[in-house]
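Figure 3 (text version): structure tokens given as input.
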């Protein structure tokens, strides 16, 4: 084997460097971790609205997924959910009507909303979304 076979091509090196964050900055930041305090827990809690007219106010921060157990088979399924910041804490809700309304209306990340549970039709909760301003 010669050295040319062991060395990556210039193109491969350029791609790898573009994909990597600045390692020197990360190394420097890693030496100051003891001085930092948690600002936001990324582990979300489920926010449940159980009675019509209950509501919450939060900042919409996008969509995610959560695993739920199928009632009939016990099999885990992935369910799309909405994420909200409320009083510095992250919450999720997977109500299908809420998800559809958020998608249909094109609510942008960072939008303050009031979410109100208005009624139940069969087994489906109906939500009203209102922009806060």
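Below: residues designed for each position.
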């Amino acid at each position: 084997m010669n050295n040319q076979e062991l060395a990556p091509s210039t193109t491969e090196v350029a791609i790898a460097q573009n994909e990597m964050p600045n390692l020197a900055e990360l190394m420097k930041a890693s030496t100051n971790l003891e001085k930092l305090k948690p600002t936001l827990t990324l582990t979300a809690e489920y926010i449940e609205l159980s009675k019509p007219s209950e509501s919450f106010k939060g900042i919409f921060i996008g969509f995610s997924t959560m695993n739920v157990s199928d009632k009939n088979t016990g099999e885990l399924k992935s369910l799309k959910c909405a994420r909200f910041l409320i009083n510095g804490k992250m919450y999720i809700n997977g109500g299908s009507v809420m998800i559809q309304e958020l998608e249909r209306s094109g609510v942008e990340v960072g939008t303050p909303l009031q979410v109100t549970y208005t009624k139940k039709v069969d087994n489906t909760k109906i939500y009203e979304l209102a922009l806060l301003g």
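The chain has two domains: 3-35, 45-131.
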